[in-house]
Amino acid sequence: MEHITLLIGIVIVTALVFDFTNGFHDTANAMATTISTGALKPRIAVAMSAVLNLVGAFLSVEVAKTISGGIIDETAGIRPEVIFAGLVGAIVWNLVTWLAGLPSSSSHALFGGLIGATLVSVGASGVHGGAVVMKVLIPAVAAPIVAGLASMAATRLTYRLARNRDEAETAKGYRAGQIASAALVSLAHGTNDAQKTMGVITLALITGGVVAPHADPPLWVIASAGLAIALGTYLGGWRIIRTMGKGITDIQPPQGFAAQTGAAATILASSHLGFALSTTQVCSGSVMGSGLGRKGGVVRWSTAGRMVIAWGLTLPAAGLVAAGAALLADQGDWGIATVAVLALAVCGAIWLASRRKPVDHTNVNEGPAVEPAGVVTAALQTVSPPPAGPVGTAPAPAVATIPAPTVADAPLADPVGVAAPVIAAPVAAHPHETHTAKLRAKAGSAAG
Asked: Whole-angstrom Cα distance, residue 150 to residue 432?
């Protein structure tokens, strides 16, 4: 076995940087609903998620094997610079979608980057097309639908079981349940997403001759990947947490509990089967399902539509960036250095742009403005009218809006105002009007 070269070391560091971005990009998967409903304070939520991501990284290596030897043919002449270019494409796309606050898939960004770089450097023979279809594309379509349907059914069942209970009391219980289900999602996220970086590092070690083909990730690879994703999770991707917690639908504690439980079950099952699915798509589908499952709950389809577009663009966009990086990296040391400098410049520019309107734990629950009701929203509200008020509150009284009188109506207008209360404070009369009224009163009494 050869020693780790400088290039392989660069690839390992870049892979850990991607793992870090994966952590703060996907924090919303586990904690967005928990934070938006107030079940946990933002800082406590991300700290708990970080610890459980680290624990989850040690529970399985099935997904790592899918990455290191399933999608890319490790015997087709894959070189470390190809993996480096693929990671650059994934990192850039992760940061672009993070800046936009869109919960896109870090997993698909990684797959797209690796596939794009491999196609440019090696050709189609370096990609296992069947594995891409069976273990990436089909789960990408099926997972959010399955999770959404499960979450919708769980939400309806939850509200049905608690329909005769006091809503304020049940909300407390569901918030406690949310903490447990969020912990389960975080653990599942560690078993799935942290392993993807392990697989990339293992692939780099195999291509460099450091470990044997089809080998399991070494222990130090597992530990470093787990620490990187945990650190990224603790810093928190507040922009995406805001979108998932407030931008898709208005989540109440029963919905949050149902969404997180459905997502955790889907992710854990896929990890056991070795499917490297997108935890972001699973959790986003669960949130949308919970919005449809509550009577009167409405999904903000414009936000959901932007998310779906980002999902569709992730594979090709990351692949294009990685393909360009691979073309440069193939030119030798100066090409690799150029790719590194350009990547740092792009990442720095994105970070500076994010500072213009920062989002952190202090304002993460200040959700975006509610979009106007569209055709789909109006139709859903017609079939299933929304509740009169939030959980545990009485319906708000209706307030009629009466237009203010125009200039032409001024002589006939009520001096106090049409919409003023009947018990409005009396207005002091003019002295001349008071004297005239007294004379009329005396004349009336004399005539009587």
From this structure: 77
Tokens at 24, concatenated: 């703060």
CB within 8 Å of 216: residues ≥ 6 apart? 61, 64, 65, 202
Query: Measured between alpha carbons, how far is 197 from 207 in angstroms, rounded to an integer?
Result: 15
At a CB cut-off of 8 Å and minimum separation 6, what does 220 contact? none
Highest mean pLDDT among 208-217, 268-277, 327-336, 394-403: 327-336
What is the CA angle 163-164-169, rounded to 5? Answer: 90
H-helix or E-strand spanning residue 431: helix 431-447
Mean pLDDT to the nearest integer, 233-261? 80
Contact between 240 and 98 (Cβ < 8 Å):
yes
Amino acid making up residue 279: T
Q: What is the DSSP letter of 429?
A: P
pLDDT in tens, 326-356: 999 988 889 999 999 999 999 999 999 988 8
Q: What is the rounded CA–CA span in Å between residue 187 and residue 261?
A: 12
The per-residue pLDDT for 350 is 93
| Closest of 336, 304, 310, 255 to residue 84, by C-alpha | 336
Phi, then psi, of 372 in degrees rounded to 5: -65, 150
Please state, in angstroms and as integers, the Cα–Cα distance from residue 383 to each residue in 303, 377, 388, following that order: 22, 10, 15
In sequence order, the 6+-apart residues with CB closer than 8 A to the CB of 333 are none
For 68-121, the three-class secondary structure string (H helix, E strand, C coil) is HHHHECCCCCCCHHHHHHHHHHHHHHHHHHHHHCCCCCHHHHHHHHHHHHHHHH
Contact, 39 vs 171, CB < 8 A? no
How far is 97 from 90, CA to CA, in rounded Å?
11
Report the first-to-last Cα separation within the chain, whole angstroms: 124
Token digits of residue 342: 């350009």
Q: pLDDT value at position 278?
A: 76
Distance CA 207, CA 78 (A): 6
